[in-house]
Every structure is written in structure tokens, then in C-alpha cells.
């Protein structure tokens, strides 16, 4: 398979930021109370991740290795601020919904870890696809978690009433986020165990 | 030593580059952003007054903005109101904290200058004179349709679960609530954020001044018939007639505010915010009306407020 496609796929399932790398769990738990919230945050993350990865990949030779972390933080903050300023002009309605989340992205562990682990070592094109894959994987994780929590916690999907009652209110409370992510993580590990016969190594989390 | 200088230079260069990009983007978008904010605010005000999609704004509708300032002078604190006049001019009326009018000052500035926050602040500060400082507090709106008082739109702020909640309430001339809108809030999505939903906001509709004073938040489930009456679009889908909904609303008019599930603090915050906003506004409007009468200010909106 083409390497770029492999990188995309890698971010989606084998190294899914939430379920396999266990990165950026705080925002994943905090905002995934509905599909819509998860999707909006995910899209914002895709943009910031791709733009930051590309910037770091291009300016790699100019970033002194000893100040790379502050430099990455500045790059991420730059793109987050730019999106925060441009979005209300292009789409005020969408901005109203994501306003809360956009500014949070600066501190997402997944973005800085991809810059450090991938974009700082690889050229522009693979960095782009790695950023895109990770962004999509993160969005996938948020939407899946959001769907389960919205369904059980609010009896709705995408804001439409499905059940007409709220079966498990705890699911939209923060504790429910831990339950859902824990169960999905376990499912991922179980599938990997069934497929490869190996017990998966544990990921490091923030 | 050499390396540390190199590192410092490099980091400085990165920061300067980032700052330049941010500055450029800010300069490019600032104007458009302000315009959109202004437009959205106008739309909020119109929808609170009952106009918006589905109901055209009549040409005879006039919305007057009244700007309130707090003036700190060596003699004490007074309140300043920028009032639109009949002859399209503006006037600054100073009222002391007991409600006695202190001074009426004519403003030499046109409507565009008054509408702009920075220019208005400068004009008012110049008028109150040296040694005094005027600080902008808020803007409330008086709406008139065809020479008749339609209502008021008043902004308010309240302490939410984590940050402040900015809201707007609309009142009709006898101070019955006709609607509330959450302008800005950072409540938890899925929990406190539900304060933006119709079934919560519409609970305030039709509450009279008397009932607002004793309004409470009750931790009871929202009755299902009331829920439909508060969500007219959902009721429409289920084929419930508007007359029936009006009846249900009438039945629940005396009810307190039903707390949102899992977000009692946010529900209470909004309720208290609405109560305080209305209480303060009624008091301030009374003072302002008396002052306008005593000083015979030809205000653009009707004298007998």
C-alpha cells in the first residue's frame, strides 16, 4: 500500500489517538456529550493538526532542537488563534457552536506529540498525511464516544429524539465519558488480541 | 554562551513572525467581525421583540438605544444616560443615586459617532469634565411601533457554573417578560448548555412583574404537555393545534422554573439573572422617566414611559 494511505489508516485505527495512544483524553471526555459536539471539535482539530504539522515540517531546519517544544506551542497557538479569528467572519453560526472548544485545542497533547514524533523528522507530504490521519482518527473517536453517550445519556442521536427518555443520565456526566472510553479501549484491545494473538502493550496517556 | 544567544535569537524570531501573522489576520478580520457581531445583536433584539423569520419587521418599528454610564466625579457617583432626542440629536442626562436629576448636557455628535463605542466614550468623558470619569455600563433598548410603546430589551449578566452568562430579556410596557435570550455563556455542553434550548428559555414567557419577584427554580421533572407547549416546532410535528398549546401554557403560567436535569446551578443562575435584570431595570427606568419629565427633555421615545 502507498505510504501516505498507510499513514492515514494508521491514524484512524492502529494508532487511534484516543483509543490506542490514549492522548488528549481530557477534551475527549469533556466534550463528547453528543455527536455534534464531538464532530465539531474533531473538525477543528483536523485543521489545527494538519496546519501545524505542515508548518513544522516546512520550517524544520530553522527550529533549534533545544527550543523545539516552545516553538511547537507557538505554532499551534498561532493556528488556533487564526482559526478563532477567521471562523466568525466566514461562518458566524458554526463559530457560535465551536467557540468554546476552539481555544482549548492549544493544549491538546495529541497535536504536540505528532509534531514531536512525526512532523519534526519527516518532510512535508508524509507530515500532511500523518496530521490528516490523526485528525480523522481523533474525530472518529470523538464521534463514536459522543454517539454512545448521547444515545444512553440523552436518548437522542444527532439531536433527534430516539428513545424519548433518558436511560442513563450518568453517561452525559463526566464519569460516563470515562466508562465509554474505557469500554471502547477494551474492545479495541480485545479485537487486536483476537487478530494477532498478542496481548497489546499499554499506551501512555495524558 | 554562543549557543544560548543563537537559541534566544531563534525563539525571538519565531515569536515575532507569529505575532506579525496574528496582527495581520486580526487587522484584516476585525472590521468584518465587528459588523457580524453588531448584526447578530440586532437580530437578537428583533427576535426578542417577536420579529424574525416568519414575521416581517414593520416599517413603523423604531428601536432606540439608551446608553448607561457610571460617572465617578470628586463629588460622588452619578449615573449618566445618553438619550436620543426628537430632533435626531442626543443628550446626556446625569442622575444621582437617589434618583434626582443633576444636569442635562447636549451632545454634539451624530448617530454614527454615538453608535461607536470608542467615540461615544470620548464624547461622554469630555462632557462630564475634567476630574470625572465616565465608564460605560450597558445599553438597553426601547422599542416603539407606530408611535406606541412596544417594549424593552435589556441586557443582563449573571454568574453561571464556571463563567458569566450574558443574557437579554424583553419586557412589554407593563414589565411582563416576553422572552429571554442567552447571548454568551460557557456552560458545560449537554448539561448547563441546555439553558439555550427553547424549552428552558420559553418558561420565562409571560411571567408578570409580580411573579418574577418570587420566581424560584424547582427540581421537578418538566411536565410533558408543558414541554411540547414550550417547543412549538416539535408540537407542530405532532399535530397539536396552537390553541391547545396556548391553553397548556396558560395552565402552567404560574409555575416556577423547572430546573434542567443535571444543571440546577445553571438553571438557578439564569433565573436569578433574569430576576435581577428586571428588578434593576424597572427601578432605573422609573428614575429615568421622572428625570426626563422634570427636566422636560424632548426624548425621541414617548414622554409618558
Q: How are the secondary structure elements laid out?
A:
The complex is a heterodimer of chains A (206) and B (305).
Chain A (H helix, E strand, L loop, with lengths): L2 H10 L12 H7 L3 H24 L9 H23 L1 H11 L6 H11 L4 H31 L1 E2 L2 E2 L12 H23 L10
Antiparallel strand pairs in A: 1-2
Chain B lengths: L1 H47 L12 E13 L2 E9 L5 E7 L4 E7 L3 H5 L1 H12 L4 E13 L2 E12 L4 E8 L5 E8 L13 H4 L7 H5 L3 E2 L5 H7 L1 H6 L4 H10 L5 E2 L5 H31 L11
Parallel strand pairs in B: 9-10
Antiparallel strand pairs in B: 1-2, 1-5, 2-3, 3-4, 5-6, 6-7, 7-8
Care to describe what's here?
The complex is a heterodimer of chains A (206) and B (305). Chain A is an all-alpha fold. Chain A has helices spanning 3-12, 25-31, 35-58, 68-90, 92-102, 109-119, 124-154, 174-196, and strands at 156-157, 160-161. In chain A, a hairpin with a 2-residue loop joins β1 (156-157) and β2. In chain A, α3 runs parallel beside α6, α3 (35-58) packs antiparallel against α7 (124-154) and α4 (68-90) runs antiparallel to α5. The two termini of chain A are 32 Å apart. In chain A, 41% of the residues are buried. Chain B is an alpha+beta fold and 305 residues long. Chain B has helices at residues 2-48, 111-115, 117-128, 198-201, 209-213, 224-230, 232-237, 242-251, 264-294; strands at 61-73, 76-84, 90-96, 101-107, 133-145, 148-159, 164-171, 177-184, 217-218, 257-258. An 8-stranded antiparallel beta sheet of chain B has the order 4-3-2-1-5-6-7-8, with helices on both faces. In chain B, α6 packs across α8 (242-251). The longest helix of chain B has 47 residues, at 2-48. The model of chain B has no long low-confidence stretch (mean pLDDT 85). The chains are: A mainly alpha (206), B alpha+beta (305). The interface between A and B is medium-sized, with 30 and 25 residues.
Amino acid at each position: 500500500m502507498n505510504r501516505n494511505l498507510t499513514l492515514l489508516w494508521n491514524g484512524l485505527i492502529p494508532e487511534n489517538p484516543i483509543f490506542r495512544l490514549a492522548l488528549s483524553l481530557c477534551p475527549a471526555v469533556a466534550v463528547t456529550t453528543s455527536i455534534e459536539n464531538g464532530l465539531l471539535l474533531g473538525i477543528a482539530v483536523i485543521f489545527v493538526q494538519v496546519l501545524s504539522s505542515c508548518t513544522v515540517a516546512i520550517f524544520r531546519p530553522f527550529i533549534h532542537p533545544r527550543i523545539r517544544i516552545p516553538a511547537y506551542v507557538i505554532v499551534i497557538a498561532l493556528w488556533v488563534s487564526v482559526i478563532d479569528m477567521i471562523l466568525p467572519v466566514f461562518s458566524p453560526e458554526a463559530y457560535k457552536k465551536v467557540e468554546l472548544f476552539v481555544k482549548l485545542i492549544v493544549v491538546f497533547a495529541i497535536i504536540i506529540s505528532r509534531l514531536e514524533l512525526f512532523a519534526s523528522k519527516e518532510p512535508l507530504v508524509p507530515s500532511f498525511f500523518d496530521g490528516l490521519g490523526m485528525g480523522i482518527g481523533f474525530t472518529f473517536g470523538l464521534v463514536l464516544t459522543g454517539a454512545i453517550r448521547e444515545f444512553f445519556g440523552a436518548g437522542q442521536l444527532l439531536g433527534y429524539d430516539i428513545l424519548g427518555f433518558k436511560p442513563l443520565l450518568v453517561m452525559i456526566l463526566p464519569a460516563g465519558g470515562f466508562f465509554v472510553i474505557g469500554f471502547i479501549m477494551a474492545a479495541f484491545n480485545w479485537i487486536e488480541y483476537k487478530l494477532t494473538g498478542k496481548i497489546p502493550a499499554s499506551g501512555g496517556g495524558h | 554562551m554562543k549557543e544560548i544567544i543563537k537559541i534566544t535569537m531563534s525563539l525571538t524570531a519565531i515569536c515575532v513572525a507569529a505575532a506579525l501573522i496574528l496582527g495581520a489576520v486580526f487587522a484584516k478580520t476585525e472590521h468584518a467581525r465587528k459588523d457580524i457581531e453588531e448584526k447578530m445583536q440586532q437580530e437578537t433584539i428583533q427576535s426578542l421583540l417577536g420579529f424574525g423569520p416568519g414575521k416581517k419587521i414593520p416599517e413603523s418599528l423604531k428601536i432606540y438605544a439608551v446608553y448607561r454610564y457610571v460617572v465617578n466625579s470628586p463629588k460622588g457617583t452619578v449615573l449618566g444616560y445618553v438619550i436620543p432626542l426628537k430632533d435626531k440629536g442626543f443628550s446626556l442626562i446625569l442622575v444621582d443615586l437617589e434618583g434626582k436629576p443633576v444636569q442635562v448636557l447636549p451632545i454634539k455628535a451624530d448617530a454614527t459617532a454615538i453608535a461607536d463605542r470608542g467615540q461615544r466614550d470620548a464624547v461622554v468623558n469630555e462632557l462630564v469634565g475634567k476630574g470625572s470619569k465616565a465608564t460605560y455600563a450597558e445599553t438597553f433598548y426601547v422599542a416603539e411601533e407606530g408611535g406606541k410603546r412596544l417594549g424593552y430589551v435589556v441586557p443582563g449578566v449573571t454568574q453561571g457554573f464556571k463563567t458569566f452568562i450574558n443574557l437579554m430579556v424583553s419586557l412589554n410596557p407593563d414589565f411582563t417578560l416576553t422572552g429571554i435570550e442567552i447571548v454568551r455563556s460557557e456552560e458545560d455542553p449537554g448539561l448547563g448548555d441546555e439553558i439555550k434550548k427553547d424549552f428552558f428559555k420559553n418558561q420565562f414567557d409571560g411571567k408578570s412583574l409580580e411573579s418574577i419577584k418570587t420566581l424560584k427554580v424547582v427540581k421537578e421533572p418538566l411536565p410533558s404537555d408543558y414541554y411540547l407547549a414550550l417547543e412549538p416546532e416539535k408540537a407542530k410535528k405532532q399535530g397539536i393545534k396552537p390553541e391547545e398549546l396556548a391553553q397548556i401554557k396558560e395552565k402552567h403560567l404560574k409555575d416556577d422554573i423547572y430546573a434542567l436535569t443535571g444543571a440546577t446551578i445553571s438553571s438557578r443562575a439564569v433565573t436569578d439573572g433574569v430576576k435581577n435584570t428586571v428588578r434593576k431595570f424597572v427601578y432605573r427606568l422609573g428614575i429615568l422617566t421622572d428625570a426626563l419629565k422634570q427636566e422636560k427633555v424632548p426624548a425621541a421615545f414617548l414622554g409618558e414611559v
